[in-house]
Amino acid sequence: DARVTQTPRDKVTEMGQEVTMRCQPILGHNTVFWYRQTMMQGLELLAYFRNRAPLDDSGMPKDRFSAEMPDATLATLKIQPSEPRDSAVYFCASGLGLAGADTQYFGPGTRLTVL
Amino acid sequence: GENVEQHPSTLSVQEGDSAVIKCTYSDSASNYFPWYKQELGKRPQLIIDIRSNVGEKKDQRIAVTLNKTAKHFSLHITETQPEDSAVYFCAAVYRGSTLGRLYFGRGTQLTVWP
């Protein structure tokens, strides 16, 4: 049963530190999405990729967030410098990218706490 | 882009009763509508989906209906059980955008009391 994996599962850091979250999409999936989930904002789309190319990162604060796909098996989301308001659960999801019917499969999430 | 509204934000039902969650969308070109269930501390998981060429789809105790004219779709859970307690998210694919992006509703916290 193929699944999206994410590391780390939990991260506690101090304000100003760099945070890197990693995601391994399901093998063969060509779309990857990064979401942030908070109680107040629900599921927010931060960025997404198709065939490793960034398609939309308008949901990300550009001054501190960056998302990349170094290769087809790894997606990264970096925050530098981190701030307390970045505390949230960050989910990665992947999909096959089928026209008009793209099921997304979510990873277990990274719970980030910035003190 | 697409705008998905979801109601209610919270829903409490007695075990055995039915639960209905409703969503509306803004773009008539949207053609795929999945529903995700997220248990506390877990990842969102797809439970059922429907395409715009179908009006209703059932899978055991859950069903989804779609009204394209009115641009709304609903999740129906019958004979609810305590393990149905979770947050449910509806979503829609906006075909006018780049392939694959889902627009999510804000979620409904369903609580089933034994």
Q: How is this structure best described in words?
A:
The complex is a heterodimer of chains A (115) and B (114). Chain A is an all-beta fold and 115 residues long. In chain A, 0% of the residues lie in helices and 54% in strands. Chain A has no helices and 11 strands. Chain B contains no helices and 11 strands. In chain B, a hairpin with a 6-residue loop joins β4 and β5. Chain B has 114 residues and is mostly beta strands. In chain B, the strands form 2 sheets. In chain B, strands 2, 4, 5, 9, 10 and 11 form a 6-stranded mixed beta sheet that branches. In chain B, strands 1-3-8-7-6 form a 5-stranded antiparallel beta sheet, with no helix packed on it. Chains A and B meet through β5 and β10 of A and β4 and β5 of B.
In brief:
The complex is a heterodimer of chains A (115) and B (114). Chain A is mainly beta and 115 residues long.
Secondary structure elements and their pairing?
The complex is a heterodimer of chains A (115) and B (114).
Chain A (H helix, E strand, L loop, with lengths): L4 E3 L2 E4 L5 E6 L6 E8 L3 E9 L2 E4 L8 E7 L2 E6 L8 E8 L9 E2 L3 E5 L1
Chain B lengths: L3 E4 L2 E5 L4 E7 L6 E7 L6 E7 L4 E4 L2 E6 L4 E6 L8 E8 L8 E3 L3 E6 L1
Parallel strand pairs in B: 2-11
Antiparallel strand pairs in B: 1-3, 3-8, 4-5, 4-9, 6-7, 7-8, 9-10, 9-11
Biggest sheet record of chain A? 7 strands, mixed
Give the tally of β-strands of chain A. 11
Instruction: Report the count of strand segments of chain B.
Output: 11
Distance between the termini of chain B: 41 Å
Please give the oligomerization state of what you see.
Answer: heterodimer
The helix/strand series of chain A, from N terminus to C terminus, equals EEEEEEEEEEE
Properties at a glance:
heterodimer, A: 115 residues, mainly beta, seven-stranded mixed beta sheet, four-stranded antiparallel beta sheet, 11 strands, B: 114 residues, six-stranded mixed beta sheet, five-stranded antiparallel beta sheet, globular
